[in-house]
Every structure is written in structure tokens, then in C-alpha cells.
Amino acid sequence: MNREDFPMFKQDIIYLDNGATTFKPTSVIDKMVDYYSNYSANAHRGDYSISYKVDVEYEDARRKVARFINADLDEVVFTSGATEAINVIADGFFDNIIEPGDEIIISKSEHASNVLPWFRLANKKGARIIYAPLDTHLHITLEGIKSVITPKTKIISLAEITNVVGDLRPIKEICELAHANDIFVVVDGAQSVPHKITDVKTSDVDFLVFSGHKMCGPTGVGVLYGKKELLEAVNPLILGGGMNESFDSEQEIFLKDIPQRLEAGTPNIAGVLGIGAAIDYLEKIGMDNITVYEQKLKAYLVERLMQLEHITIINEESGSGIVAFNVEDIFSQDVAYYLNKYNVCVRAGNHCAKILKSITGVKNTVRVSLYFYNTYEEIDSLIELLTDKDKIIKEMI
Amino acid sequence: MDPELKREIMIDNYSNPFHKETKDEKDYIKENGNNVSCIDDINLYIKIDGDIIVDAYFDGDACAISTSSTSIMLKNIIGKNITEVKNYITNFQNMVYEKDYDKNVLGKALVYDEIYKQESRKTCATLPYTALSKIIDKK
Fold it and tell me: Which residue did the predictor score with more confidence, A365 or A36?
């Protein structure tokens, strides 16, 4: 649906790599071009009209994000993306909390961005990384989380939807369990916020991170949500303009309140305005409509793929629009190369989840990740291209 | 060479790669080959006696172009001396990067003489050669 809103679809292309990034609607592009063309001033310098307009638009985008995830206005920090946001809290918040012997629960199906910052923190502090067990479908369950919680557990950091397995984790229930045990919950929402309703008050997550470009917004901008009292305790890792109230030659520094305290330097203004426009766009379609449509489309894709004997799906049970599979005897990248000859874009590889293979035994897969603008006809075209294994082998070189 | 024949040679070397095996042998120099832009990941193991490459094998996961190119390369270098192998590597890379090259030293590696037409696959074809160069340079 809504394909006419996306300039990229003027090309003859079947884009099935939405887990990597999404296309941008004209309204988002126009919003950013309008800023650069008509009021291209800095933020927080409201001494003249165009700069004042920047401030209004910038804070309006923050308001949109807050409303979109049901947060308060000062709980929304703009970052360069989900990756930076996790690093900010790992190094700026949990660095002060984690002690030797503490435990950090993640899973082996997490994206690198939700693994490496915790590895570093654990190494620095002498803490331990604990992997929550995955069930036979590679899903995280509440019982699985329960089984690894100990008195030493300080953090549970999980994607709400993982980028390979695509399972939807029971975040609200995990938060209840965690908070009853004085454990913080960090949620990587990069693959979930673009596809479903997000409500941080209902789920009660402590921190949530996500990226603009996976939800029809621009690259280089993302969001760190944190409960206000927690964000207040985040040590700003980057100091400079925009985040200080005042400083003097005696090296006394007074910092601004959150969220500005955590947004040093001139921000990605066009990006922030772009994410605001993306939210307007998604809300117009309706997040519920997006979820329902994607699930129907995914079910259709799985049903069609399962009819092909030479294809093995590793995550047919997942609750998201992500399907990872392999074609028998063919390296995933060769499948991707072959599909590219027909202008079909899919991702091949480990998808940044490099420790998942220790559980699945499958190092690389072809990944199809859907969004609301994908169609049943596109699925049919994909299936037609995958139906004849000999054709793939013949044309992959 | 006929395009169909080229394809057949590549597929044959991909489906039944030469000396692709997992073993833990002593006296072999190991070098990993991987591409930043893709997921090819192979390990090359070369045994050099004096000036001669007396044996070689590889393991890992890589695409059809990388795997077949490694297979063909190994067939071409075993029994050759370092000078000959250096010359072979240079000519293969010249072919892929559209410079003058000597066809006579490349043997079946000539199947990649049109790989330059697929920009993204040049690094697939040259992956084992880059790893082999590192080993030779260490000598």
C-alpha cells in the first residue's frame, strides 16, 4: 500500500531489505529539503526568525516522537541512531552502576549493536554476559528469562524484535519480572518501533532505542528514550555546545537539563525534522494497519516458500515481517546476487547477529524483511524466481 | 572462451572445489581472506618447501565466484616456485582490474576474464589471491 508516496518505486525494483533500511516517502524528503532550502539556520539560536523556526520545528519533532511512543517530552533524546543510543547508556549510565560479578542478560540472536557495548562494559567492570536461552523456534520466552535471573543480574537488554529470527519478545512481562528483581530493562526497538504500536508507559521499559531510517525517516538520526529519573543520571559522554548552561575560566561547568544535556553539538537538524515527518506519515497510515498488513503478507510469503522443497526457513514461527531462509546447496550471497539480476533486493549474510550461528549451526541466510509498501505480487515474483533451483545455479554467476 | 564453458568450469569448481577440506596440518602457513563488503570468509593454507609451493588447501564459506576462484588458484600454484606464483598473481589481478596481462600464465583462471563487467564481484574473484599475496610476502 501507499507505494505512490515513495520516489524509489519509480524504479523497477522489488525491495525486500527493510530490516536494513526503508525507503523514504516524499513528505519526509520534502520536509528535509524545505529546511535546507528555506530556514537553514542552527537550532537554539533564536535571535532571528529562521532560527526561531528551527527551534519550533526541532522541538515539534521531539513532541511527535514522544507522542508516538507515549513518552514525556523530556524523555526523548535525539542521537545518531539506535547504535549510538545503546552506547550512550552502556557507557554513560550503566558504567556507574555495574560492579564486578554483576550479570548482564542478552541473547545470542541480538544485533551487534546490542552485544558489543555490553561486552565492553562487562570486560571493563569484571561483569558477566549471560545469554538468555532460546527455545526450539529460537524465541526468547519469559520462562527462559526467569531461568537465568540471579541476585547478580543488573541489566536485561533485548531487541523487541530481532533482526534475523524476528521473534516478538514479551517486553511488558519481562519488565514486570525484571523490576520485581531490581533489574533494568533496555530495549532495542530498531526492528519493532517501525512496525507496531510502541507504548513505553504500558511496557514500562527503562530505556528504549531506535533508528529513524528503518521507519521511513532519514539515516543518521535515532532516539534514546529513558525514564526521566534515569536519563537525569546519564553522564554525558560528549561535552560541548548546546549541552552546557554556562562555564567559566575556573573550569566550573553547569549543564543544561535533559534532554539537551545529552545532545551536544549542532544536532542533525534535517534528520530530526525528517523523523518527525516520518512519524506523521506512519501515523496517517496507522501503526495497527501496518502490523496487520505485514503479518498477512509474511504469512503468505512463508506459505509460498514452504511449498519449495529446496528452501529451508529458519524462523517460520516469528511474529514479524522478517523471514530468513536458505536455498539447498547454494551460498546465501549467490542467491542474493541471482535475485539482484532481476532487481530484487534481499540481504545475505549473518545480518550482524554473529553469535546466532553457535545455536542454529547456520552461519549465513537470505533474509527478506517486509514493510507495508511491499505487495503480494512482489512475493509472487520472488517465489517464481526461487522455484527452479537449477535456474538459480545457472544464473548466480 | 565460450561463456557457457566458463560458467561450467566455475560451477564445477564451486560444487567440487579442489583441496577444500578441514584439517589441522602442521607446516602450513595460514591466511584468512574476507571481504569488507560481503560475507566471503575463507582460510588459505600453503605449504612451502624452499622456493616451491608443495601443497595447499582451504576451508571456510564463500560465494560461487570466490570458492571457484580459490579452487582454480590452488590447482594452478601447487608445484610452482615463488617467482612464478608472484607473476601469476600479478597477471590475474591485472586481468580483473583491466590492465595488460599475459594469458599464457593463467590457465583455467582465464574463466574470470570478464568478471570486470560485474563491479561487485571483482573482490570475490581476487579474494584468494589477496590472501596468497600476504603469505608470499611473509616469505
Answer: A36
Q: Do B63 and A363 touch (CB under 8 A)?
A: no
Contact: A331, B63; criterion CB under 8 Å: yes
- Find the CB nearest B64 among A331, A349, A364: A331
> Does 3.90.1150.10 match the CATH number of domain A287-395?
yes
CB-based contact, A348 to chain B, within 8 Å: yes
CA torsion through residues A48, A52, A53, A58, sign: positive
Is A352 tagged catalytic?
yes
B38:A349 CB<8 A: yes
The secondary structure of A20-63 as a DSSP string is T-----HHHHHHHHHHHHH----SS-TTSHHHHHHHHHHHHHHH
SS3 content of chain A, % helix, strand, coil (to 5): 45, 15, 40
To the nearest whole Å, the CA of B16 is away from the closest chain A CA by: 12
Is the CB of A341 inside 8 Å of chain B's CB atoms? no
For B41-74, write each residue's pLDDT tens digit: 899 999 999 999 999 999 998 899 999 999 999 9
CATH number for the domain spanning B81: value is 3.90.1010.10
Cα(A121)–Cα(A92) distance, integer angstroms = 11
CATH topology of domain A26-284: Aspartate Aminotransferase; domain 2 (3.40.640)
Three-state DSSP class for A213? helix
**ipTM score assigned to the predicted complex:** 0.76
